[in-house]
Structure formats: structure tokens, C-alpha cells
Amino acid sequence: MAGLAAAESLYSSGFKVEIVEQAAVVGGRVKSVAFHGRTIECGAQFPSTGYRHIPQLFERMGLAGSIEKASPWAAYERKGQLHKINPRRPITFMTSGLLRWNELFDLARGSISNGGAPRDRSCYAAYAPDDVEEALPWCTRKMGRGASEHLLDATIHGFYFYSLASTSRALVSALMSFRGSEALAIRGGWDSLPRAMAKTLNVRTGLCVHRLIEQAGRVKAFVDKDTIEYDWVILAVPAPAANRILVAPNALESCVLQTRYASTVHVALGMHPDWSLPKSLNGIHGILLSANEHAWGEGLVASMVVESARLSVVNAPETLTLMLTDSAARRFAENTDDYVIEEVVKWLEARWAGIGSSVVSHRVQRWNLAEPLTPVGRARNVQQYRIYLPTQRKVLLCGDYMGMPWTDGAVETGLWAADRIRMLARKGP
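The chain above was modelled as a monomer; its predicted structure follows.
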């Protein structure tokens, strides 16, 4: 999405643009597939009304009418019990039993004090001033232990597969600015957006870029057995791939290219048409679980989506989709998909007895590079890269590791790269 956003922006400005994509289709981890009578999301899950850039892309591609609001209800776990909450109604944090009244008060007080000058919540560089300490001690100090353990840690882990303890406070500051935002679903699948964008652009798929070398004010791209020269290259791939491709990175580039990733496995379970949702799952679009190994997820499940509450589909049987923890994804790396399904069904059976006999179909999607880790220092590294990258540099880095760990964050990095090229092109040699 970062590369597509950059290409679409430059093309709209009159630049001649070519996209070189290794896969057979564009979109990366925005991946939608037909499964069990529905279209499910196997990678990026829920767009948000709080996004700044994605809605504009949907509008420009004529897809705004396909956006629908998911159920506003989600669930978190505390002491082995699920608690149903509506983020737009913070009082439900207390009435559900997730937080005590004093814990909700601490959360509200800390949230208010976290205000300040408006920033683009998808621009990680804008949060560099907050990138000075880990999130857990900061959240505990500002918003209390209860909210940190039972709400904030589960939010970080459920969405991004790492814990509050290993996260920069910069990410939490940005997440808290989403207050009042709603989860969205895309009828026809979220990957309808990258597919629509690709139709307007010159895209060459099935080609592998092995190396990029700057030489005499141009960029040589070694693509399979060919060498292609470009005026500029926007390298929109995950950090490990960019690190292999970019020859002789400078110090600024090397810092951001060392970004590490969390893994996950997406598991989809199609349920028998006669199966009914347990009462505890009625109306909720998803469950977010803590990184605590002794919590409800037991080190196996980070989050679960109830597809009927994401998007209503007439006559479609229920589908449950689960994202596994980073530790589980690494543990199952050498196991078969059938083994993964067995373990997930055991986890479900321990919570909703009899559910296993109602699973009639399944699908497994593995993501070794699911989300860039967000330790202290990454936002400052991105900011330094943007400020001090030499103007003569013809290769620009963008993608997930250069922004916030959500799709709108990746798009923002591509738009930044496009803006920089426009600025350099106006200045000339």
C-alpha cells in the first residue's frame, strides 16, 4: 500500500511511474479471500474512521460506497471472563466489569492529559518527541495499572502482536488519539482498494528486484536478468527485504533498516450452518487479548474476529478468524497447517465446549513479517531519516517500518516519499 500510494500520488502529478512487484498481485498484507460464503481479511483487518489517508484513496477509486461500519462492540478479558465494551462509550469499560470505577477515572484523567497539538496520527515521525520511554511504565504512571494491564496491553498485543512492555510510548500516544473512532469493513474485501489503484498504474508483477545501486545521478535496478535505470526509486518493501536490496546504505538508512518484526498466523474457521454463537460472543466484532502468558489467550491467541459482526452477509454461515501470538507463530513455523488448526480448536473448546465438532472448513495464512516492532527509538530514527537524508539520494525508503503499524501509517510513508520527489524535481539538478 505504501508503494501504490506513492505511485498514485506521483502519477496524478504528471510523473511517469512504473511499479515492479514480485508477487502475482499487488496489496501485500492487505489480502482478502473468499471463504465459507464470505469475503474475509487475511492480513490487515479493520480500517478505521480515524484514518486520514485511506478514506481519500477509497474516494478517488470510486469505492467509498463499499465502506460499512462494523459492530461497535468488542471484548477484553479480565480474570478469565470476557467483558463487552463499546470504545465510543467509555462508561462501558466500567459497567462491563473490565475496569473498576477508580481505574476508569485514572484512564480518563491520563487520556485528557495526553492531549496537545494535533498531529497526523499515522505519521510516526510526528511522534518522535514522545519516543523517549517504554509504554508500560508511562501508561501505569499516567493511566493506572488497571487500564494498562486489562485494556492497553491487550490492545497493543491484539492488534500488533507485541506487549506494552516492549513498546514505545509514542505508539500509545498515537493510538489514544483514535478516541471515538469506529472500526470499518469493506464489502467485497479490503484488497479491492489496491486492485483498483493498480488498474490506473503501470504495474509489472512477478519480477524480483535483487539490487539497487545509485550511479551518476541515476538508480540501477537489477530486476531478474535485466538492468533498468530510473531517475528515482521508492523502495516499498519490509525492512529485511530492503536491507538485502539496497547496496551500501548510509548510516541513517542502516538505522531504520534494522527494524525487527512480529509474526502471526491467521486462522479462519468456517462453522456449520446450524451452529449458533455463544451468548458471550453475540454482537462483538472481535476480542483482544493480553500478551501475558497466563492470561486468557494462553500465549496462543492474540485476537479473534466474529465475521458476522464485522459485516453482515445474508445466508452465510458463521466464520471465526483468529490471529495467533508472535510466540505461537514462531513455535508453529515447522508444523503443518492441520496441526495449527488442532491447537486452535483445542483453545476454543476450552472456552466454548462443543465448538470443535461444528468446524467444517478452515484456512491458514502465515505472516512471518506481520508487524514492525515499535521499541523506543524507532520514531526518532524515522524522523532523523526524513530530516537529514541527503537531497542527492535517489532511493527513498517507505513502508511499514517507516511509519505507524497500521495501513494508514504505511500509506503516509509512501505519500511522504512522493512529496519529497516532487520537491526535488522542482528544484532540478
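DSSP finds 15 helices and 18 strands in the chain.
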